[in-house]
Design a protein that fits this description.
Length: 229
Amino acid sequence: MREYLFKLNSSRIFQFSVISIIILNAITLGISTYELNSILKNTIQILDYGITVFFVIEILIRFISEPKKINFFKSGWNIFDTIIVLISLIPIPNNSSFLLLRLLRVFRVLRLISVIPELKKIIEALINSIKKVFYVSLLLFIILYIYATIGSILFGEVIPYRWSDVGVSLITLFQVLTLSSWETVMLPLQEIFWWAWIYFFSFIIICAITMMNLLIAVIVDVILNQKKL
């Protein structure tokens, strides 16, 4: 029995079926956000029950087919899938107070990551890059904090709603960091202080371009090293 389930779990047809059901689940979740008639709502609800049953059976097959049951729980991905399936088993009444449970059910779509090896490698690489990314992010925050403090001192009295204190300045500079309509932040100051462009251009070059590219480079480097292993 266990050997049969092991072969079933390892078969490409079964894996394709799991991926198809997860995609179907994602589609039904998306459709359920629209205004639907009662027939479609009932159909989606029945599909949701069926998908939940399929997920439970799939987890049981993986658990039973494992030669050493303790090894099943040594895999972080198995624990991840099991938690998501257990959340799906919690009944959700049509009540706003159960909104959190309804939101948690959306995370079933994340199971697509655990069943596609390429996606798993990317996530594992990102997790392995956390340490390096943390130090690059810390350096970015230090530079951001320095510029926010300077901006608050220089521009706080002129445009207080953007530069009144360090906290507000950080929010303003974060908008500049995203390069989203950053000129609307600079131009009003440029009319008052001719040298304001130096402040913004240097910030964009250091943080928005250099530091962000460095952050991306660190992540890419870890992903490439992960693939070589």
